[in-house]
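User: Teach me something about this protein's shape.
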Amino acid sequence: MKRLKQLFKLGLILLLAVLLCNFLISYKAEYKTFDKIENVPKKKVGLILGAGKITSNGYVNLYYKYRLEAAFLLWKNNKIDKILISGDNSRKDYDEPSTFKADLIQLGVPETDIYLDYAGFRTLDSVVRAKKIFGLESMTIISQKFHNERAIYLAENNNIDAIGFNAKDLNGRFGLRTKLREYLARTKAVIDVIINKQPKFLGPTIEISWKQTKPISSFSSVL
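Assistant: First, the predicted structure itself:
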């Protein structure tokens, strides 16, 4: 019985810690994410947080689709000038950044306005590498709101001025499962900040050119 009580207390402490981390990240990102394009402040660069285009059952990943559309909307409305795509390219047959790039080009974004980070294995890696590799001190992060909030928390703890533009989210069972995992991801994000966790890889710096190349373009579906 004594051991059972100890396990119960430990479980309660862990649950409270998870809830506290979730609250902390939401609080830190309050008023820093935007749902409407007209309310988004102008930034030079938008950072797309990676996602695979195709799910394991062969369908288009809606997280990917909505992030792609959000990034294009920002660029088209002059809310950003350049797009940095950060994602996983740990295998030859899996390349999130290049897939995003190809679809953005098909939408009308010139290749010269797109930069790729192939070592964005985690949100922490994507955010910190945006500063240390690409020299960004300020940016608009592009993902779903729950993800943007966590990324903003990580950015601010690395002295980056970040806001988020919220891509359309998912509802239903799949969306709920993702949001439940987010509780654990937020707890890990807080721990990473405490221990000053660094990206898996860094490397040479990459300079972003600020030359304006934007043509007149219209939105079309590529998905």
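Now, about its shape. Residues 2-28 form the longest helix (27 residues). The first strand starts at residue 33 and ends at 34. If you'd like, I can walk through any region in more detail.
User: That's plenty for now, thanks!
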